[in-house]
Amino acid sequence: MCRIAGIISKNENYPNLHDNVKAMCNIMAHGGPDDEGITTAEQNGFVFGHRRLALIDLSEAGHQPMHYKDISIVFNGEIYNYLELKGELQNSGFDFTNATDTEVILAGYTAWGVSVFEKLEGMFAFALYDKKQDSTYLVRDQSGIKPLYYSINSGMLIFASEVKAFKTTSYSFEESKDWKTYFLTFGHIPHPFTTLENVYSLTNSCFLKWDHQTASHEIVAFSQTDYTTKVNDEHSAEELVKHRLEKAVENHLIADAPVGVFLSGGIDSSILTLLADKAIASNLKTLSINFAEQAFSEEKYQKIIADQTQGTHTSYLVTQQDLEKNLDEILSAMDQPSNDAINSWFVNKCAKENGLKAVLSGIGADELFGGYPSFKRMKLVKALKRLPKFVLRLADKLPSEKLKRIYFLSYDNPVGEYLFLRGFFTPTAVSQLLSIPKHQVDQLLENFPLDQEIKKLAGGERASWMETNLFMKNQLLKDTDYMSMAHSIEVRVPFLDQELIKAIHQISSDIKFGDQPKGLLVNSFKDILPESIWNRPKMGFTFPLQGWLRENKKITDPGLYKENSLANKLMEKFKAGNLHWSKAYALYQVFNPSS
Question: Is 187 annotated as a binding residue?
Answer without folding.
Answer: no
